[in-house]
Amino acid sequence: MKIATWNVNGIRARGPQVEQWLDAERPDLLCLQEIKAAPTQVPLTLAGRDDYWTCWHGSGGYSGVALLVHRDLAGAECTAVHPSFDFEYRVASVTLGDLEILSVYVPNGGKDFAAKMQFLEALGNHVADAHREGRRLLICGDLNVALTDLDLHPKERKAGVIGQRPDERALLQRVIDLGLTDVHRTLHPDDEGLFTWWAPWRNLRQRNVGWRIDYVLASTALGATATRADCQREFGTSDHAPLVVEFG
User: Fold this and answer.
1) I need a surface site. Which of 107, 160, 168, 232 has the fewest CB within 10 A?
2) CATH code of 190's domain
3) Is the pLDDT of residue 192 over 80?
4) Strand-pair category, 29-33 with 2-7
5) Confidence (pTM)
6) DSSP string for the chain
7) How far apart are CA 38 and CA 53, in angstroms?
């Protein structure tokens, strides 16, 4: 199974890039964040594709997430749901057999840090409930936390800055410790240049001066089957890169 996640920073601006990427990579599943569009605003050439079942969960020029599941995987039973902790169109999930897939966009926390912490706490509760009920999980998206200093370019390490505060790092780590694998870091444990987001100035992306804040988290047994985890820094004009994971 080949899955991907990408914060596109506006599906109306990046729609043709998403289509180009889909045609080239052909993933079984694609999770998107920051679509910044209501379902009726998604480009029809993308929303109307017959090879993917789609869920577009947004309301306009802010936030929003999406799920695209290849028809070979989706079958006729795909239904999107939104967990109770969803707000501002930040979570969509779909369940395929015993596997629940969530596309997640965690609040940045700059305007309301408490809301970010509450969201992460609720996400952890969801993980615990899912595992207790026998579901496997894939959590894909922009979690807006650099888990360790290794996930920051040395020039970006700033103690106390939101996104790298000890309390939010500890909370994200607690979520992972509930039985999840951080797939990219597991396959690339010592990669000092594994970043997924770059501020859009001073050629930081070209120089790879970035943060790793986008993740694929998989239930432990599923994560152990991962054979590939890439970050495609060179593709697209979003300030985030597409991430790809393949499971054996």
Assistant:
1) 160
2) 3.60.10.10
3) yes
4) parallel
5) 0.97
6) -EEEEEE-S-HHHHHHHHHHHHHHH--SEEEEE---S-GGGS-HHHHT-SSEEEEEE--SSS--EEEEEEHHHHTT---EE--TT--SS-EEEEEETTEEEEEEE----SS-HHHHHHHHHHHHHHHHHHHHTT-EEEEEEE-----SGGGB-GGG--TT-TTS-HHHHHHHHHHHTTTEEEHHHHHSTT-TT---B--SSTTHHHHT--B--EEEEEEHHHHTTEEEEEE-TTS-SSSB--EEEEE-
7) 17
Distance CA 114, CA 134 (A): 30
Tell me how far apart the alpha carbons of residues 143 and 186 are, in angstroms, rounded to a whole number.
17
Closest CA to 135 of 102, 100, 163: 100
Q: Which residue has the tokens 């997924």?
A: 196
Amino acid at site 2: K
Angle at which helix 113-132 crosses helix 166-176, to 10 degrees, equals 10
What pLDDT score was predicted for residue 16? 97
What is the extent of the structural domain holding 197?
2-247
The mean of the pLDDT values for the chain is 97
User: Under a CB-based contact definition with an 8 Å cutoff, are residues 172 and 145 in contact?
Assistant: yes
Neighbours of 110 (CB within 10 A): 11
Q: How many domains does the chain have?
A: 1
Dist CA 44 CA 149 (whole Å): 41
What are the tokens at 47? Answer: 């929303």
Where does residue 40 fall: left (phi above 0), alpha (psi -120 to 50 degrees), or beta otherwise?
alpha
Nearest to 28 by CA among 84, 62, 75, 63: 75
212 with 147: CB under 8 angstroms? yes
- Which tens digits make up the pLDDT trace of 44-92? 999 999 999 999 999 989 999 999 999 999 876 789 999 999 999 999 9
